[in-house]
């Protein structure tokens, strides 16, 4: 036992004295004995006193190294992070994945912009991505990431990571304008085309006396590559006489390696997005500021199909009974699906915050995110292209859905030895989804109800944590979070039946612990432990179905909360112009919330259920070094090894011992940039992810197929040239090696980017 206790004791040591040694440094962010010190006009909202893993990237590094067309691109090369961005302007599937959470678990991370919650906890999964569109890439001053649920200031959704986008606020007149053009040749199966994107933004801000303001407008016009592929299992039935003989079907294998035919493409989106952001701040004193943020995001998108099938006259075929190689296949009118979506979301944020290094600072903050208009329309009676002229269909509305937050926070600095953070938080979510039939899917009014889901959840929390420097080279953080969770007004409806759900109320305590030790001037040893309770979301509880008898058939309002126990052990070394970090991490989760196949009421259905236990362990190596070998040559990279397994699952025994979905064993990133002159910089980056699965029982070994999840290795290139003091230009290529990879949908292939920027 002693041989185990010695390294464990050393591992429970982490950082504090480096703070004083580096307090006068100007580069940001800086890690000091387990503490992150942020320089700049806008401090991060993250609790930088926690001695645990932080990563960050500045606006300058984003400009130098990343072809950023959306806000989530800033996270592209962060250790162990992945955003499942399918195309430029992806608004409903760009989910953040972290160390022990895959891209099917959007509710296991938190994304903020200046402390305003952007994460969408109305549900969990691909269609509940953070509201990235509320942040224009041009507004980003810095992005900070806290890994793990080690701060009592955040709820159980922080189990993966907490991301905060810090956006600029001017100190003098600023004008920024940017134009971007993209070009993606796409070749897959019988698809051979090119998809373009056009993006423009303008930002204006100023400061006069105690007032500061900024407005930002951006527009995106994007054509994404096809995302879905209508298909049919191989038929053994001979085609009937009179069936349309067609050619062009692509034989292949699905993700389970079963043979099928691919008939064409669908969900090729043309997206038009507009984002408007306004920020206003007033300084009552040098240490007290009031801020208001308004965001408006509008999205119109059209998804269209394309058939590979051709009849004897060479015309495309989209529906009907067909003969392929003499076998019978039936293509419904909705197999080649199409859709129109029109969304308008509004965001408000208001805060009153004291800042500085006084004995006591505080903040009051509130935010509102509203689905002002959110409608999807699709045909049901006619096939493409006839459906382009109208016809019967369905319309799904989420108008009035949204969430609001309220927070009161305080920090008390008790001399040089204690920093105490405490506060109250409230988060409330409302789901209002209704699907109606309509006589005209393009412009028709809502008709009879097909289904509806409604409900509310609310969490009220109290927290406190003490950052205590109890010796010269030692520091500890002890925290506790209390959460009262309530779910109410739940209703699940079919066309003729409605099931109402009883109110639920539960209470949880989540302790946090961290310890840091300054082993030498350059080495810091840190350890963190934390419990996180991730509450079920509204849609997980109430979005399902009702049979003719009024019984629920594929949802469970009695779902348990997901409880995770997470720890990490880190050795952090300061280099001459950089940092080297090695972190061992582990997580044990009970009652994980997953969609899985179950037998309920005698029927096999796919529904959200609790997975009894998932265990994850791993190692993460992160390296950053500026001026390597010569001035201006910068390197950074990371390697992550993860072993994440399902160890108990009574509802689906076949999944026991299998890999947690969408968690690869190996991940890696690398970025090298070089400033040839003070005007010209070039960067080259690479990303790797190993084999992964999408199903709980790992029954999908073929990742290189529609609905599969493949490994990948991609490289990116960017060159930026400053023409003069105000004008700059950049060109780049994402996926330079044109790797064809999948995460249910195909990712973009080689994409060319050109930018022109003006700064005043």
From TrEMBL:
Gene3D superfamilies: TonB-dependent receptor, beta-barrel domain, TonB-dependent receptor, plug domain. The keyword Signal applies. Residues 1-25 form the signal peptide. SUPFAM superfamilies: Porins (SSF56935). It is a multi-pass membrane protein. Belongs to the TonB-dependent receptor family. The keyword Metal-binding does not apply. It comes from Duganella qianjiadongensis. This is TonB-dependent receptor. Keywords: Cell outer membrane, Ion transport, Membrane, Receptor, Signal, TonB box, Transmembrane, Transmembrane beta strand, Transport. Residues 50-162 form the TonB-dependent receptor plug domain. Residues 299-736 form the TonB-dependent receptor-like beta-barrel domain. It is found in: Cell outer membrane. It comes from the Bacteria. Its main location: membrane. CDD domains: ligand_gated_channel (cd01347).
């Amino acid at each position: 036992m002693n041989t185990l206790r010695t390294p464990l004791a050393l591992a429970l040591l982490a950082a504090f004295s480096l703070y004083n040694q580096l307090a006068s440094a100007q580069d940001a962010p800086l890690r000091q004995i387990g503490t992150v010190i942020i320089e700049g006009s806008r401090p991060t909202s993250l609790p930088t006193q926690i001695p645990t893993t932080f990563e960050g990237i500045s606006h300058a590094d984003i400009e130098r190294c990343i072809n950023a067309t959306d806000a989530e691109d800033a996270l592209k090369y962060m250790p162990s992070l992945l955003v499942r961005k399918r195309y430029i302007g992806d608004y409903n599937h760009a989910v953040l994945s972290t160390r022990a959470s895959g891209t099917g678990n959007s509710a296991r991370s938190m994304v903020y912009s200046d402390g305003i919650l952007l994460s969408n906890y109305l549900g969990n999964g691909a269609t509940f991505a953070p509201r990235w569109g509320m942040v224009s890439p041009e507004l980003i001053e810095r992005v900070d990431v806290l890994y793990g649920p080690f701060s009592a200031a955040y709820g159980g959704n922080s189990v993966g990571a907490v991301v905060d986008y810090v956006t600029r606020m001017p100190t003098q007149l600023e004008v920024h304008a940017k134009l971007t053009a993209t070009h993606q040749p796409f070749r897959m199966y019988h698809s051979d085309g090119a998809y373009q994107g056009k993006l423009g933004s303008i930002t204006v801000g100023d400061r006069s006396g105690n007032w500061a303001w900024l407005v930002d407008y951006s527009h995106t016009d994007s054509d994404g590559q096809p995302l879905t592929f209508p298909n049919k299992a191989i038929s053994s039935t001979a085609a009937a006489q009179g069936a349309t003989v067609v050619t062009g079907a692509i034989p292949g294998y699905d993700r389970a390696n079963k043979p099928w035919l691919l008939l064409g493409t669908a969900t090729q989106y043309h997206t038009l997005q507009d984002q408007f952001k306004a920020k206003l701040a007033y300084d009552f004193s040098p240490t007290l500021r009031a801020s208001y943020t308004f965001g408006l995001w509008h999205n119109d998108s059209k998804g269209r199909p394309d058939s590979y099938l051709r009849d004897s006259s060479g015309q495309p075929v989209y529906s009907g009974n067909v003969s392929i190689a003499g076998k019978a296949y039936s293509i419904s009118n909705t197999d080649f699906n199409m859709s129109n979506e029109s969304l308008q979301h509004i965001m408000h944020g208001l805060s009153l915050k004291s800042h500085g290094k006084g004995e006591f600072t505080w903040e009051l903050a509130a935010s509102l995110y509203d689905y002002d208009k959110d409608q999807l329309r699709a045909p049901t009676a006619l096939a493409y292209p006839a459906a382009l002229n109208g016809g019967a269909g369905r319309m799904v509305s989420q108008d009035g859905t949204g969430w609001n937050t309220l927070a009161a926070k305080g920090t008390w600095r008790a001399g040089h030895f204690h920093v105490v953070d405490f506060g109250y938080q409230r988060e409330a979510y409302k789901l209002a989804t209704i699907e109606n039939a309509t006589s005209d899917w393009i412009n028709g009014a809502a008709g009879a109800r097909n289904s509806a889901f409604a409900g509310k959840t609310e969490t009220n929390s109290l927290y406190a944590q003490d950052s205590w420097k109890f010796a010269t080279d030692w520091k500890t953080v002890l925290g506790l979070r209390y959460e009262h969770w309530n779910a109410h007004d739940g209703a699940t409806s079919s066309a003729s039946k409605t099931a109402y759900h009883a109110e639920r109320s539960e209470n949880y305590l989540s302790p946090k612990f961290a310890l840091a030790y300054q082993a030498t001037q350059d080495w810091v040893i840190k350890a963190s432990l934390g419990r996180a309770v991730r509450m079920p979301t509204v849609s997980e509880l109430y979005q399902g179905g009702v049979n003719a008898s009024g019984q629920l058939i594929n949802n469970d309002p009695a779902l348990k909360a997901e409880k995770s126990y997470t720890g990490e052990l880190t050795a952090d070394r300061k280099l001459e112009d950089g940092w080297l970090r090695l972190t061992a991490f582990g997580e044990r989760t009970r009652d994980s919330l997953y969609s899985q196949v179950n037998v309920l009421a005698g029927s096999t259905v796919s529904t959200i259920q609790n997975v009894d236990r998932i265990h994850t362990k791993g190692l993460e190596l992160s390296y950053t070094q500026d001026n390597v070998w010569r001035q201006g040559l910068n390197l950074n990279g990371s390697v992550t090894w993860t072993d994440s397994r399902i160890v108990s699952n009574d509802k689906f025994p076949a999944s026991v011992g299998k890999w947690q979905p969408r968690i690869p064993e190996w991940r890696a990133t690398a970025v090298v940039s070089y400033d040839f002159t003070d005007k010209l910089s070039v960067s080259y980056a690479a990303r790797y992810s190993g084999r992964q699965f999408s199903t709980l029982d790992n029954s999908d070994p073929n990742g290189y197929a529609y609905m599969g999840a493949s490994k990948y290795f991609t490289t990116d290139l960017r060159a930026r040239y400053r023409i003069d003091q105000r004008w700059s230009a950049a060109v780049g290529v994402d996926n330079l090696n044109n790797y064809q990879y999948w995460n249910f949908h195909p990712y973009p292939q080689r994409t060319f980017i050109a930018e022109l920027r003006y700064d005043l």
